[in-house]
Structure prediction request, 231 residues.
Amino acid sequence: MNEKKIMVVEDDRNLLDTLKYNLCKDGYNVVLAADGSEAIETARKTMPDLIVLDIMLPTLSGYEVCRILRKETNVPILMLTARTDEVDKIVGLEIGADDYMTKPFSMRELLARIRAMIRRSEMIAPTQATTVERLKINNLEIDIERHQAFQNEKELELSPKEFDLLVFLARNHGLVFSREQLLEKVWGYDYAGDSRTIDVHIRWLRQKIENDPSKPENLVTVRGTGYKLSG
Prediction:
């Protein structure tokens, strides 16, 4: 039995118990943490397959936990926030979270997101582990096996989701994809929230791969349609 391990980081005891009950009912092995410091220690010790991470935590915020863990692991991270500010959501995505949900949320939707994120990570992992593929587009070079990307031979610091997005666009360079198509192909499911997740990642990829992000030459917008990687 391939029982996936989910780590839930939440300081609201009632919500923590509710999440544990529903995740266990859905067949997951659940480990818990109630503050930021405990989350980092528990993640390192238990090596979960996915992390559900609240933003507002004692000792260290969810942002800090995400930033620290993202340097050590590519584990999918789903952030929970009670805030509705778009800025808070964008910050989470920028530091390496794969997805976010705003409280209050539907437990059914949360479980669906978790299943999809795990499916996506399972699809990506074997490819990364076995392929020797290297992609070259314009002044970009991507080493799939080593999970590295370079521009003019200088390594780029990309979050896991930025890397996945760049790889997908590079493999399909010249083709135009809508936001919805990118969410399905890169995130691996029909995203239930708004499509600004894509805009955030596109903007930050441009900051890293364009000489002038305001006038992109590699990752371009096709007005009214979507995005493509030229080459």
About this structure: The mean pLDDT is 86.
